[in-house]
Amino acid sequence: MQKLNDSEKLKGFIREFEVDRIFSKDMRSYMELFFYKKNEYMVKDNEKMQYLIFIVKGKAKVFTTLSNGKSLLLCFYQDFMVLGDMELIGSQTAVTNIQVIEDTYCIGLAFNRVRSILIEDTKFLKFICGSLGNKLYRCSKNSSINILYSLENRLASYIYTTGERIIIPGNKESKIIFRENLTEIAEVLGTSYRHLLRTLSELCKKGILYKEEDRYEVTDEKTLVKLSADLYR
Predict the structure, then answer these.
(1) Is residue 58 within 8 Å of residue 78, measured between CB atoms?
(2) Radius of gyration over every alpha carbon of the chain, rounded to an integer in angstroms
(3) Which sign does the torsion angle of CA 15, 17, 23, 29 carry?
(4) Tens of pLDDT along 99-109?
(5) At how many degrees (to 10) do helices 151-162 and 221-228 cross?
(6) How many angstroms separate the most distant Cα atoms in the chain?
(7) Cα–Cα distance, 93 to 47 (Å, whole number)
(8) Per the confidence metrics, is the pTM higher than 0.90?
């Protein structure tokens, strides 16, 4: 995590997402701008959180580590999402792992500076209730997805959400490139490494993906989107 002393960029994000509308009081003097590099952890399970965080540009995956040591994907966060809402009101210990999957900017408010103000702010608490309700709905939905949807559907959603979109040289069109640690992906999708390889091979046979050295290129984005079926959103 890197703290940025860029007041203009911070003001730009505050204006873009109307962050002021969340609070009854002017909280701009408490807001700090942070930058997380791709693959960096924002927080890990059982770590103490120090900030209420708003993702304003970027994307992160949220997964939990089970008692048997395995991990399970819960959802993806992108702008404009809040982290630390539960920790602000209750325990400051995080209950999930959150890892950015692309370079990400966030606005943070230190708990030790704002907690006493925010727990008395009815406007902010109303926002938090909505945020927690949305998270509960997503958690319930995504738990069903992990049980009821095939690995092909879940993998398609993962690739579409986490893949890197790049512009084709000399062309206005873009393509999605996917390259990640397959062992880790198998773990968070709750499958075996061999089953993951078989599913990737099937997607290649169907012409949806093309394997090139250490990466996969999406060759049929339309079909990939249909397979992903808005999972983990």
Answers:
(1) yes
(2) 19
(3) negative
(4) 998 999 999 99
(5) 120
(6) 58
(7) 5
(8) no
